[in-house]
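Notes, Module 5: Reading structure tokens.

Key idea: the token line is not a picture. It is a compressed description, and you learn to read it the same way you learned to read a sequence, by spotting repeated patterns. We will look at two proteins. The first is printed below with its tokens.
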Amino acid sequence: LGTVDSVMAFLKKVQDVIGRFADPFQLEDILAYIDTLSPGDSAAKTAVDIALHDLVGKLLQAPWYRIWGLDKEKAPSTTFTIGIDTADVVRAKTKECAERFNILKVKLGRDNDKEMIETIRSVTDLPIAIDANQGWKDKRYALDMIHWLKEKGIVMIEQPMPKEQLDDIAWVTEQSPLPVFADESIQRLKDVARLKGVFTGINIKLMKCTGMREAWKMVTLARALDMKVMVGCMTETSCAISAAAQFSPAVDFADLDGSLLIANDRFKGMEVVKGKITLPDLPGIGVVKL
């Protein structure tokens, strides 16, 4: 995704060329050109993309969910991740989160997967989303785990196996009682079509796909291919989280807890109210600087 130095170097390139575009509404031309400045730098490209979308939204005096024709009331609840820890810590954390959220997320792919789920289930019966983090190497083991998890109230599985094992993942997905979403297997728009039939759906992250312009194209293509969609994040401020939340009314699952995991958030934007993504009535990406 990039380092501080690589991001600053890329933004210097953008500063040197941005003057050639007089009209900020030419999002396609501007962002397509910026994408050609380097083969990577996805996080830096996302920063430019978000800033440009915020500007255009403010010039139009409308939030992007309205520009895209979405109903903010249809925004889903966001998952909140319960980290791997001792049983006592997991139980305490789960009790706390169960009072604030409507769906939890658990990262598996280790030797104690069942113990982790049983520990959480001793405290709450909330729906759980699973991110296996490519941790299950054998397809039959993966499918057996998914069937067991289905009985425990799990509602979706993210990246059950290594991204290189697409044939095995397709085999699992075909027989899985739960939807299976790509994470490490997908980066950008070009990856969506080849994953049709391999996964049930895709996880879109702005920092990987270069921003809102490409993310919206990925949503549109995935729906055209009859695939499910989720929106995810890294550990980010409310600036990036609010940008991603603008298309959350169009997704099946959301994992937008990144700004809740930091203590130095410099922005106020999308909020989680009773577990649900709540978009403000502000133009652009919907944030104000604190």
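Here is the second protein, with the sequence above and the tokens below, as before.
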Amino acid sequence: MNEALIHKQSSYFQNLQVYLREFVYGGIDGAVTTFAVVAGGFGADLNTGIIIILGFANLLADGFSMSVGAYLSAKSDKEKYKKHESLEYWEVENTPELEREEITEIYKAKGFQGDLLEKVVNQITSNKDLWVAEMMKDELHLMMETKSPFKIGLATLVSFITVGFIPLLVYLWTYFYPSDSNIFLWTSILTALAFVVIGALKSLVNQTSATKSIAETVSLGLLAALVAYYVGDLLQNFFTT
């Protein structure tokens, strides 16, 4: 049983690594959009209950919309690849000389010449699958997406809702357990910490500086919050005067 549990945990962490990009960008969008709603509500001087309602409506609707978009995009990319792959197989089978010439031109452009060029072309064209794979990669510049479209959408949804829930956490807690603390201040602090963590993860995905990635992510969240706050404040003044 322990081995089964270890295997299950190992599989979970492998999936997390594979879909880390989707988790990171879903989390960024979730935190930015929900925090913007909270900041706009605060700027408009809305009460806690209304901010919670708007926040959750945004969190669930946008999370679902984004995950569906990610799923459909990944599914479309796979279908596009399969369509062009089928066409390349047909061309290899029905117009092999033309396709061989295309392979020759591709490898000439890469610097291959003479006998070496002939050997490389012979090797590639001796295997239909390899031949088509080379045409897909070098002629059409298409790469097969190995990730599951469903898991891409699921990772996006989970991260959007999980990270996007953080800006609502203090408001929800205060709604059930009222206190005199500055709700928006604590919300801003927690959300900033979330941006720091998700920014650090983004640096792993993009192989960039952690400091730069964190600064960009925090700045993006701050800018969105400032815009939402002042828009909310402006609209509140306009409609109540």
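Summary for the second protein:
- The chain has a mean pLDDT of 89.
- The CA atoms of residues 195 and 219 lie 9 Å apart.
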